[in-house]
Specification:
This protein is 43% helix and 19% strand. The protein is of the alpha/beta class. It has one domain: Vaccinia Virus protein VP39 (Rossmann fold, 3-Layer(aba) Sandwich), CATH 3.40.50.150. The chain has a seven-stranded mixed beta sheet, with helices on both faces. Helix 3 links the parallel strand 1 and strand 2. Helix 2 crosses helix 3 and helix 7 runs antiparallel to helix 8. The mean pLDDT is 93.
Length: 241
């Protein structure tokens, strides 16, 4: 079952993802990100980025497939508490996610810009540049060809690295997610287990990144039992694919 990536769509990528399932899904994701390390890993990335860009605040960070923006919102709170200036530009195509993200972010006067857009359309027309980018629980939604295209589009728009955090596709992850989602909303459980089957192995991510013309360097910084975390640096003038 886990030998190859699954191509089954998640409900959140289709017409059946209504407002009720969206609310349940993104609240579940927010809780999971806090409990199981995605938020702390993204915070670690932000700390490293701040350390190498001293004097260049406010930092501009792009969040790809941001969902309800729980991680950017939490990172903005952390930055404010630690006297750092950080602005997030969050890209999300699902209108339910955008509505919920706007509700979560608006009362707090945070530097989080939420844009309802298709990712590739935004990047193809973007004239701005960013100090770094996040892709948390997002890459598994894309095909190999879409990831290849994404890397080419990001290269001229990032001054710093891309941080990828996603589920690792192997039996311990699937077993843990199967147990963790017992008793949850059926649609939420479907998407969690599907996302594991659509995820990557360390070898697959290495094969994607190591010879890509837009990538100058990458490091798999965590390949634990549940997650993969990778930092990707880009070539200044990649040959377009």
């Amino acid at each position: 079952m886990l030998e190859q990536r699954d191509s089954t769509p998640e409900l959140m990528d289709g017409e059946e993802f209504d407002v009720g399932l969206a609310e349940a899904s993104y609240r579940f994701i927010r809780r999971t990100n806090r409990l199981f390390g995605s938020l702390s890993a993204a915070r670690g990335f932000l700390r490293r980025l701040l350390a190498v860009t001293k004097g260049r605040e406010p930092l501009a960070i792009l969040d790809l497939g941001a969902g309800a923006c729980d991680i950017p919102i939490a990172l903005c709170h952390w930055a404010l508490r630690n006297n750092h200036a950080v602005k997030f530009t969050c890209l999300e195509k699902n209108s339910h996610a955008v509505h919920l993200a706007t509700k979560w972010a608006a009362p707090k006067n945070l530097s989080v810009e939420i844009i309802e857009t298709e990712l590739f359309t935004f990047l193809e027309n973007c004239q701005s540049s960013f100090d770094g980018a996040l892709a948390t629980l997002f890459l598994h939604h894309l095909s190999r060809e879409e990831i290849d295209r994404l890397l080419f589009l990001l290269s001229p728009r990032l001054r710093g690295p891309l941080f990828v955090g996603d589920l690792r596709r192997w039996p311990p992850t699937y077993a843990a997610c199967w147990l963790y989602t017992l008793g949850t909303e059926p649609g939420v459980r479907h998407d969690v287990l599907t996302s594991v089957r659509k995820g990557f192995t360390p070898k697959e991510l290495t094969e994607i990144l190591e010879n890509h013309p837009a990538v100058s360097n990458f490091e798999i910084i965590n390949q634990g039992s549940l997650r993969l975390e990778v930092e990707v640096s880009f070539s200044p003038d990649p040959v377009s694919g």
